[in-house]
Amino acid sequence: xxxxxxxxxxxxxxxxxxxxxxxxxxxxxxxxxxxxxxxxxxxxxxxxxxxxxxxxxxxxxxxxxxxxxxxxxxxxxxxxxxxxxxxxxxxxxxxxxxxxxxxxxxxxxxxxxxxxxxxxxxxxxxxxxxxxxxxxxxxxxxxxxxxxxxxxxxxxxxxxxxxxxxxxxxxxxxxxxxxxxxxxxxxxxxxxxxxxxxxxxxxxxxxxxxxxxxxxxxxxxxxxxxxxxxxxxxxxxxxxxxxxxxxxxxxxxxxxxxxxxxxxxxxxxxxxxxxxxxxxxxxxxxxxxxxxxxxxxxxxxxxxx
Length: 305
Known about the structure:
Elements: E1 2-5, H1 9-20, E2 26-29, H2 33-50, E3 56-59, E4 70-73, H3 85-106, E5 111-114, H4 119-130, E6 137-139, H5 142-157, E7 164-165, E8 168-169, E9 177-178, E10 184-185, E11 188-189, H6 196-217, H7 222-237, E12 241-250, E13 256-267, E14 270-274, H8 281-300
Parallel strand pairs: 1-2, 1-4, 2-3, 4-5, 5-6
Antiparallel strand pairs: 7-10, 8-9, 10-11, 12-13, 13-14
């Protein structure tokens, strides 16, 4: 069973994707009980169309997550006009702590996936608060960035997105690092198919893509919801997918006490393994810069309850 905490646009869309992919039953939890119940009812009525008999339940009762294999946290406060990044971090850190305590209480054996932003810092908060083994707490971020990276490469080349492979590491934010030298089209490096200025355009579009959507419609929904279902499938079915996951590092890449996006094997145990890449000098420098951005905010974060 999967529990999703937060019945807003992303949480509800993710729940419907999970049902549609026939991955698992879903419990949708939100402090606004009518919202959670209403979303679940709406999905249940659509279930015959997707030919799935899985159960979907909406509730405000955290105890309903009992027995969950995976708990996904999408709840959080959106950044408001005039709100600084650190204000957002502190507000969502308190929400994440509160939710994590409920997870520990009711689903102590689960894997815990964080979606709430800033995801690198919220993953760190959830890991510290939960006391879980580090493989069981991870965040969504760079997989979404990677989908965007792949989409822009495909558009620039005029080829199918299905044939594009890529990887983005680092912060899920402005300092993310799209790994150009690891991107390919059916095994052909994009560096042999695109000019430098084309690649630079793709990298810049990837970095601004989330903000571009937010400016136009207020929030991103479909892409993060799709990524959540991909990650949920990897964990629930033990498919051992290789993808860039926000993981807590303890010496990998020379970093400690930090959650950041790195390539991982994602499976039944959560983060089954962290893959350490040999980065070229420029990518290594950019990744270290990205880690510094997260560290700087972490040091300013209010850690009190």
